[in-house]
Description:
Blueprint lengths: L6 H10 L6 H8 L7 H5 L28 E18 L11 E20 L6 E15 L2 E9 L4 H9 L4 H5 L10 H8 L3 E4 L4 E4 L2 E3 L5 E3 L3 E24 L3 E24 L6 E4 L2 E29 L5 E8 L3 E16 L3 E5 L3 E8 L3 E9 L4 E11 L4 E3 L11 H10 L2 E12 L4 E13 L5 E14 L4 E11 L3 E3 L13 E18 L1
Amino acid sequence: MKKYLTIALSMCLVAFTAGAQTMYEAISYSDYNYVGTARSMAMGNALAAVGGDLGSVGINPAGSAVAGYSQITITPGLSISTMGAAYSAIGGSDVFGDVTKQRNTRFGFPNGGIVVNFDTGRKYGIRNMAFGVVINGTNTYNETFSTGGTQHDTSFMGESAYYTNGVNPDVLDGSSAYNSGVKWTDVLNYRTGLIAYEDQYNDYIGSTEKRFPDETIGLCGPIYQEYYRQRKGAKQDIIMNAAFNVNDNFYFGFNLGMPSIKYSESLNQHESAVNFNDFEIEMDGNKTFWKEGRQRFTLNANGSGIYAKAGFIWLPTKGLRIGAAIQSPTLITMNEEWMWDADCVFTHDSFSGETPEGRYSYNITTPFSYSLGAAYTFANRGLISVDWERMDFKSMRFSELESNWGSDPFEEDNRYIKNNAGVTNHLRIGAELLLTDALSLRAGYNFKNYRESSGVNDATHALSCGLGYSSPRSFFCDFSLRYTRHPDTWFYPYENYIDNAPSPEVALRKRTVDALVTFGWRF
């Protein structure tokens, strides 16, 4: 089933309220897509019952006590995101043009840390303790796409004019227009000439439109529409870890996690005349022709939060390992800055402008998450492991930074989340084979299903593999690759405003490839 993300509606929320507080933004800030070390990623991050690796610490806090030695790692990585986009002039027709592909590459350090292991000298009870600080990548937001096609019926300027009707032009011209309760885009579009007010008809019309003899309004001629979006950013967790080994068959641990989020977005929609002679306009008593118009939205957001996590790993019989972990809700404080800018070009003149910079801070409370895992080792020559993790996004909540005894500005958003958000089930499978005393071969598979109350059912699939080298002394080095197929998505750039003329539709397909190298030392 198609998943529609109506960017036009999201834009209006950003411009008219304060920031990008929608259900989908809350999910993207709450969700976990682990990166970890090269070893953990190669094994599909199916380490809830395995441990022994710094990439496993964020999945199960007990993992740091399993190794029995201290270690330090650093993991540089490369993430390549490829977006395919196709344009349909008539939304819902499933008739799309050629697919355009764009690639976005990001270099970073998704993992690094140190764990120090202390031997208590006891024969029974707590035999060793581990304390560490680990940084783990838990989400990436990098993607770029552009697409476009010829349109004969609608335009974003026409949609803006339609929904501006009823607003006095004196309000749009006023010094306090951006504080009047009118959508910021309506003010900006009016001031830059993307829409105009017709006194004789007491309504607004887009620069791409004309009024026909039967009083209907439509495009003057065909236009070419282009859409471009770029997203950048990442989510990383700084983890303070403590774990304990009881009799070499039971391990338990605790994390204090502090996620850090950096996110930016630029969304550009552009329309141009296929033949500008079709778009004759009278401006200040002179004849001119409309050529092109553009509207761009930019958002910069950063956030930080805190949560607690506890877990255990149990070895009930030789070879069998069972692990489980539970993570508390995370309280994240987000700070957002956004603005719009636009320009409109005619044959004899051009206009440009921008809105003030909007700023807003708010809290997100993420859901509980819990995971279960089982692994089996084969005489120290290899292992296979399976994890299952679950998050119910219905419990997400927006809130103000300070308590407000009056009306709750997020009441409607939170009600929508409760009624519509879904549940994520994440299955992770991993395997490791010791080829020699120094060389290991690894592989993994991830299946992540997100199901909404509305019926949306999206699945993400990822395949991974890797090699590991361990020297006779302290040094070790791991390499891994992961290919991820994300669910296809569709969106309407602006809302329908003409009967029997649906707005255009854009289809998106995303694939990512991640490559990691981990350098580590045991001591």
